[in-house]
């Protein structure tokens, strides 16, 4: 189970749960130890099930689908942990000793936790400027200082500096930043009144009963609920370290369990912060690359739109020239069909019309001649020598039928 879980990029417990959901038998506890001693323990039977939905097993490991740079860091940290498993076990078994000289990054928070009196609920909130954003009950003070000190030193070993921001902590590498917090779990429990509160409530009820018997409504109070709350918040002493970042597939929370404690998981927390920070970098660079590609596509679409408008102007100009040349040709055909004695003259309507037609032909020749064509193309708008609208990649893909 442990070997396969490592190959799949998940925990052995996660793989065991997956097998249980699909009714896949797994070796019971001590199975391989018995095999190693030469015994032949019974093998759990693999049963045929009628539910066909259980035939396909989908495994989504924490690191199997991550970018290569993140997976590489995960494999490196896992190897380092396996190489120093004996040291980790030795540290885990040692009792926590109060830190005399906490790391400078957490010294202000440590001093606050040790010197400040807790509030009426027994809570210490180190959330002032320069603090680490720790919210705990008073009995968890030394544990929290131990965790913060180990965290600051562990981050320093991998080239990261912890920053206390008041309501939280953070680390930053170049343009990428990750924030995290250390808090204590709470739970909602039913309030158990003290004997004094119970006695006081009984006296109140007796007083109300006497008032009822005397019909003394002025001293009678409405409502039968006791004066204490039904539920209260209880601080459990269980600490939770949480990274506030979007990093799918990566662990971001470490909390106290039945046997494990957060202070023993600081190396894993440091590795987790590294992975999340790398994930933030990869996501930022991917976002920047998508933005760059979108901007480039937008630029190309604007060029394509400008080329389209210019082509329309070119075609309109050419159609105007062709139309004028057609008009000139038809006019000359009409003039050729007139009698030989039809001459331009100011003495008759026909003569004056012929004078106007000659002027019209001259204007058409002027507008469609080589001189006019050179003057139009020489503006640099329709036929420039250096085409700034040219796209070496051709027209970009259209969107909704439009270039942009």
Structure, described:
By secondary structure, the protein is α+β, with helices and mostly antiparallel strands. The chain folds into three domains: 61 residues, no CATH class; 223 residues, no CATH class; 84 residues. It has a five-stranded antiparallel sheet. Strands 1-2 form a two-stranded antiparallel ribbon. Helix 6 packs antiparallel against helix 7, helix 7 packs across helix 9 and helix 9 packs antiparallel against helix 10. The chain is elongated, with a radius of gyration of 43 Å. About 1% of the residues have low confidence.
Quickly list its features.
alpha+beta, five-stranded antiparallel sheet, 404 residues, 3 domains, two-stranded antiparallel sheet
As a whole number of angstroms, the C-alpha radius of gyration is 43 Å
Count of discrete alpha- or pi-helical segments spanning 4 or more residues: 11
Biggest sheet layout: 5 strands, antiparallel
> Looking at the structure, what is the overall shape?
elongated
Question: What is the structure about, briefly put?
Answer:
This protein is of the alpha+beta class and 404 residues long. Helix content is 48%, strand content 12%.
């Amino acid at each position: 189970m442990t070997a396969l879980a490592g190959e799949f990029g998940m925990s052995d417990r996660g793989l065991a749960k997956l097998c249980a959901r699909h009714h896949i038998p797994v070796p019971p506890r001590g199975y391989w130890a018995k095999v190693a001693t030469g015994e032949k323990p019974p093998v759990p039977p693999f049963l045929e099930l009628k539910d066909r939905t259980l035939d396909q097993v989908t495994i989504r490991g924490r690191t199997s689908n991550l970018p290569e740079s993140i997976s590489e860091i995960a494999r490196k940290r896992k190897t380092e942990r396996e190489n120093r498993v004996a040291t980790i076990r030795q540290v885990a078994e040692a009792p926590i000793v109060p830190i005399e000289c906490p790391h400078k990054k957490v010294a202000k928070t440590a001093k606050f936790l040790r010197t400040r009196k807790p509030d009426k609920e027994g809570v210490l909130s180190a959330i002032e400027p320069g603090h680490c954003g720790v919210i705990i009950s008073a009995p968890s003070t030394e544990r929290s200082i131990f965790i913060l000190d180990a965290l600051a030193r562990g981050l320093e070993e991998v080239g990261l500096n912890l920053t206390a921001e008041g309501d939280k902590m953070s680390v930053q590498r170049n343009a990428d930043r990750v924030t995290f917090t250390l808090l204590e779990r709470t739970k909602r429990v039913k309030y158990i009144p003290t004997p004094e509160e119970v006695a006081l409530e009984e006296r109140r009820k007796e007083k109300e009963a006497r008032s009822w018997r005397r019909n003394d409504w002025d001293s009678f109070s409405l409502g039968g609920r006791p004066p204490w709350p039904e539920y209260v918040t209880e601080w459990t002493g269980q600490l939770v370290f949480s990274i506030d970042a979007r990093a799918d597939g990566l662990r971001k929370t470490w909390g106290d369990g039945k046997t494990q404690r957060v202070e023993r998981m600081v190396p894993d927390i440091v590795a987790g912060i590294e992975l999340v920070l790398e994930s933030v970098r990869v996501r930022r660079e991917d976002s920047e690359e998508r933005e760059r590609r979108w901007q480039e596509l937008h630029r190309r679409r604007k060029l394509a739109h400008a080329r389209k408008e210019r082509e329309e102007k070119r075609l309109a100009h050419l159609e105007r020239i062709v139309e004028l040349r057609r008009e000139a040709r038809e006019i000359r055909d009409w003039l050729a069909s007139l009698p030989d004695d039809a001459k331009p003259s100011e003495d008759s309507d026909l003569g004056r019309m012929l004078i106007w037609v000659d002027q019209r032909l001259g204007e058409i020749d002027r507008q469609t001649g080589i001189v006019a064509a050179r003057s139009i193309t020489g503006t640099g708008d329709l036929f420039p020598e250096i085409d700034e609208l040219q796209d070496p990649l051709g027209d970009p893909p259209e969107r909704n039928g439009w270039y942009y």
